[in-house]
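dumping this here so i dont lose it again. seq + smiles for flavin mononucleotide
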Amino acid sequence: MKIGNIDLTPPFALAPMAGMTDTAFRRLVKRKGGCGLVVTEMVSSEGLVRGIDRTLEYAEYTEEERPVSIQIFGGDPDKMAAAAQIVEGMGADLVDVNMGCPVPKIAKHSAGCSLMREPAHAQAIVSAMARAVKIPVTVKMRAGWDDREINAPDLARRMEDAGAAAVAVHGRTAAQSYSGSSDWDLIDRVAAGLGIPVFGSGDCIEPAQLVERLARGPVSGVLVGRGALRNPWIFEQAAAIRRGDAARDITPTERGQFLLEYIDLLLDERLGEADGFRHVAPGEGVIEPAPARGHHRWVINKLRALNSWYTKGIDNGSHLRVAINAADSIEHLREIVREFFAAGAIAGRAAHSEPRPQLSLR
Ligand SMILES: Cc1cc2nc3c(=O)[nH]c(=O)nc-3n(C[C@H](O)[C@H](O)[C@H](O)COP(=O)(O)O)c2cc1C
């Protein structure tokens, strides 16, 4: 699969997920193999244009992540064009526009999914961006605003006319948020009506599902979000199935190692310090802890966030989730992970567990 001159092989991509797909997570996923594209968390166009450090950090990536797409959000065509130029200047391979976020904080500013209700405005944004940069501009949208306003097929065509090089569709409406299921018939309809590549998104949690979605066409690629948070090896496994091999089982040791490596990569980042973890004790005002402590707290919080998904992919994951939620230092965090994934501990737990239920995303 190609978008512009960018080769996306295999055509499976890590979906943008705010708070989750940071550079550390993206690097680890890429290292497993099978992932042809990663997309950053959504980044504010306003913050980029104003040069806000925190925003720029969200857009940071490393060479090993390439090809990398930086997703931006906003509702002002000029600022979105200027932000796209900044993204291009940062060396990103692609710039993606968020037209799917239903969170009111974003949607109320004519950004995110509310752009789906203003097709002409959405078109003006993408035209301005496509004129401003040489890298491909892509758009990620939902099925529509609600079940009375399902307009992805029409909007996607407008995006193509405006100069978008590819489109991704999550087959739920904004009103649905994450309830119900992603409508892949609708996604296929969008793809069938366009000359540019279309990524389908939603509810792929088993590696074979990625391969099936692609094989039935007409989508050119598949974006995986929550399935990759549970199982970062999903791309590697899907690539194996696509080659006609069996998807290999992931050992508890590998699962534990993933979390330990994630901790190490996060510790190497500056973001936590910029974040300046501050906590307020009653009557004491704001306490500024030493930067290292703030950074450690940030790392622990990142692990908690990932584990709310990651632990659903493993036996007795709730034990790990509860333990990590109680972790109070990095060393404690590491000990919990090592102990949980030690072969004996996992085997003992697994022996007492019920048969694994059918996976679902809730
Ligand atoms: C925690 C979380 C954060 C998300 N953040 C973004 C985002 O920043 N930009 C975006 O376009 N989609 C975002 N999404 C939507 C996903 O990219 C994806 O389209 C959706 O989750 C459906 O795919 P899945 O079933 O594979 O998770 C987010 C989803 C989740 C679960």
